[in-house]
Amino acid sequence: MFAHLLIATDGSELAAKAETTGLCLAKRMGARMSVVTATEPWSAMTIGDPSAFDFPIDDFEAAAARRAAEILARVSEAAAQFQVHCETVHVVDFPAEAIIATAKARACDLIVMASHGRRGLKGMLGSQAQRVLMLSPVPVLICR
Fold first, then answer.
1. Sheet holding 140-143, edge to edge
2. Average of pLDDT values for 75-102?
3. What is the pLDDT of residues 51-86, one digit of tens each?
4. Which of 5, 14, 61, 66 has the fewest CB atoms within 10 Å distance of its CB?
5. Could you tell me the end-to-end alpha-carbon distance of the chain, in angstroms, rounded to an integer?
6. In CATH, which superfamily holds the domain spanning 4-143?
7. SS (H, E, C) the chain
8. What are the structural domain ranges in the chain?
9. d(C-alpha 112, C-alpha 36), whole Å
């Protein structure tokens, strides 16, 4: 049914459920799998003039790249145990946009991701899963 799954993860405990679900689906269907993790750009972390901050941007980017590499290596190891072909990608962009762009660029036909299921103001302000659901050209499986 699906030939190429995209698992979106931020490395959280909740995202691990989506990782496992995606791995199980890929194994069962004989599908390829890509895994994406996104780091929001430094500009998204600051308000006003970025030069007013003492924190070097290079340090932020290096720490983000190390964290992304750790997340992706862990999922790659799990994929190897499941005997599922897995490619990984780290994207510097807002999460929902990174997920959609990666799914399109890699011709994925299903996105698997987690959601906290928040409602009300918290859900409206921060739901990456909701944004992916609204923008995705392919089906999205949400794990909770």
1. 86-92, 32-39, 4-8, 110-114, 140-143
2. 97
3. 555 667 888 889 999 999 999 999 999 999 999 999
4. 66
5. 23
6. HUPs (3.40.50.620)
7. CCCEEEEECCCCHHHHHHHHHHHHHHHHHCCEEEEEEEECCHHHHCCCCHHHCCCCHHHHHHHHHHHHHHHHHHHHHHHHHHCCCEEEEEEECCHHHHHHHHHHHCCCCEEEEECCCCCHHHHHHHCHHHHHHHHCCCCEEEEC
8. 4-143
9. 10
Among the listed residues 107, 119, 113, the one whose alpha carbon sits nearest the alpha carbon of residue 132? 113
CA 33 to chain centre: 13
| Distance between CA atoms of residues 74 and 86, nearest Å | 12
Record the pTM.
0.87
